[in-house]
Amino acid sequence: RQALASVIAADPRDVECLCALAHLEAKVSKDGVGKSMEYLGEAASIDRNHPVVLCHLANHAFYCGFEGAAAENGRSDAPAQWELANSLLWRALGSARSEQVKAEVHYQLARLEHARGRYAEACSDYDRCYRVEPLHLACAMGLAQTYVQMQRYTEAIPLLETLQQGKAPLP
After folding, report:
1. What three-state secondary structure class fits 54?
2. SS3 call for 114
3. Using CA atoms, how far apart are residues 113 and 12, in angstroms rounded to an integer?
4. pTM of this prediction?
5. Taking the alpha carbons of 129, 35, 85, 56 in that order, is the dihedral positive or negative?
6. What is the spatial distance between Cα 110 and Cα 122, in angstroms, rounded to a whole number?
7. pLDDT tens for each residue of 19-64
8. DSSP 48
């Protein structure tokens, strides 16, 4: 956290660093949010079209969709939130130059399709992410889950065994 804060002190307009701080803050805060939205808001105010900013905003919209789906009033905002996330991710994919950012976009697109029950589409995007980032464990797990949901057990088993053993995922 201190290293990222030092980068921000040197360059307060470093949106990638602000997004990294937002991500870290969400992971370490007891409430799962902390100052993450402040950092993300600041990054978005600097460059709302930066692919990393778009990915983080899409991630936020995805989780807001889950909260909307769990609302007690019976009305789900998930489709609207997930459409927003989808739109942001496609914009990010169109402007991303980094293969790692593109991989993250594909992971998030896959997660959206997976949540919607569109397993073939999810599998395709998980696979795109996994080919670039084979150590993306959430992607490997999502890919294995979609294989199971599509009854493609011969593809799921090696992934799940590798994950269980704590080894690096298969190529």
Report:
1. helix
2. helix
3. 35
4. 0.85
5. negative
6. 4
7. 888 888 888 877 777 788 888 888 889 999 999 999 989 988 888 8
8. T
